[in-house]
Amino acid sequence: MTERMNRQWRLAARPIGTFKDSDFQWTQEPVPALKEGELLVHNQYLSLDPTNRGWANEVDTYLPAVKLGDVMRGGAIGVVEESRNPSFKAGDHVSGLLGWQEYAITDGTGLGKLPDNPAIPLTAYLGLFGHIGLTAYYGLLDVGQPKAGETLVVTGAAGAVGSLVGQIGKIVGCRVVGIAGSDEKCRWLTEDLGFDAAINYKRENVLEALKRECPNGIDVNFENVGGVILDSVLALINVGARISLCGLISQYNAAERVPGPYNLAMLIVRRARIQGFLVSDYMNRAGEAMTALGRWLMEGKIKYRVDVVEGLEQAPRAVNKLFDGSNQGKLVVKI
Amino acid sequence: MTERMNRQWRLAARPIGTFKDSDFQWTQEPVPALKEGELLVHNQYLSLDPTNRGWANEVDTYLPAVKLGDVMRGGAIGVVEESRNPSFKAGDHVSGLLGWQEYAITDGTGLGKLPDNPAIPLTAYLGLFGHIGLTAYYGLLDVGQPKAGETLVVTGAAGAVGSLVGQIGKIVGCRVVGIAGSDEKCRWLTEDLGFDAAINYKRENVLEALKRECPNGIDVNFENVGGVILDSVLALINVGARISLCGLISQYNAAERVPGPYNLAMLIVRRARIQGFLVSDYMNRAGEAMTALGRWLMEGKIKYRVDVVEGLEQAPRAVNKLFDGSNQGKLVVKI
Fold first, then answer.
1. Which ipTM score applies to this complex?
2. Residues on chain A touching B264 (C-beta within 8 angstroms)
3. Beta-carbon separation of B273 and A273 below 8 A
4. What is the pTM of this model?
């Protein structure tokens, strides 16, 4: 066992702007022997998410900053190869923050065991049946509280979370307008996923387009982006609007501090709220979401796609697909 | 009756920055005869509020912008002199948006009749028993939802609303920290009103002072100010914090658009919310607040002061006391 090598991406520098190759170091070290209580996981799929960028900054977020020299933090799925922990046995599939590496040794803290269901591909547990599905489900339904007949605007709408949010919004009975970064993505939203309208923010003035597509104003906004797009949404919110703040991807790569919305006073004028949330607060209610998402998937009411990049060595470049908008669905790396 | 003259302040120009004398025109016109359904109110006290500044801009807020040439909008209290409206009779005291003028003719829409209680000074209906008291009561209790043992930060704390909010926070059992603009105001907050601490934002770094005075972080923020102060609060909010957004006085006089908070991402990290509100939404629940505020006043649990400026002709200059911080309590003009 100690002869086996573990290849890893370690954080080598604090990124400025988007990740660069030089922000990571490709290292390898022998896989050590297990201590009592530990288990060895062979990682199979690595989840790449916008939040990865925040973790690499010097400042702590909802989790401590990744230390320079440490293995880069990342959600992953793997199979237990060896266990000296009574809660896990060899062959179990597990998910957790296993890191950008081929093998992880852990005491099992925070690790989830995956159900043994051959009908569900493993990558689904990094997406629809994982943090992505829970984020969309609770971020929209619990934080945004959409009602039938209301208008929902989803930003980052072609992303893994956003594309689900819009489809759930349709199930609720909302008019759903998505904002995305290419005509192809917009077509996917309206033609394949059933969004009522989609706006390509790179080609259109978002405020004008929202005025056109939201003739009755905006009641709920599932916000992944921030910046000018959030300001445009704020300009058109209705009385009592709810903005579910999931992310601010427009500013994750900014080298300088990014100002918040100029239209903040609209929250007063429209008696509206912006509410942030983290999916981790909903883990104890995961069952409800999984049941609903699974049912909708089988009923054909939601569609879901995964963008698989081959090879752990590609992770540092692949993660930037989240920020240049070139990913097509939930981004994962096959290790 | 038609011989009597009505002196009025009309909006003459869109203000840039704080109000200037030239933004208003002092006019007079005869008081016309009443039509069926109308009543004539002799105004007695005019309420000056930060929101006056917003109403004077070209852009509509929660009310339509005041048109150039129109009598300046303002809350006021007066006595009915003559009535051809069956709901009001001569001698009734009323409050409503009667404007910056000596006499108002109205059909009674939006007008409230004041109780006939000689123990309560008329100015109280522009303050503690009016929109000020309701704003503090519902903005804190309904929107901010403070709980005993939590830390409440009140900005604009020496203002009419803020000073009440802090005292209600103490009644709830919070640690209350106020932010105000002079040492004298800070002393008033801590020595007379029972705030646990007060920070003079003109003399101290607000972020550092908040770290010192809020050792357990911030759970509730009653926000009147915005800008750097809101950013400092956001930096220190606890998980689940509620920011009750009442006003953004730091930007009402800005000639250019003012950016929102730089620390907006803290809403995600701390699963917190910013919620705007308008007191007008709580008018149908006024009784509950009045009863509680009246009881607390009689029990000596809240104190309240009024800053009376003599003479309607002083209104344009007096209103700027709200923005330079020189008012001492609820600002009213005795007409």
1. 0.89
2. 226, 245, 248, 260-261, 274
3. yes
4. 0.90
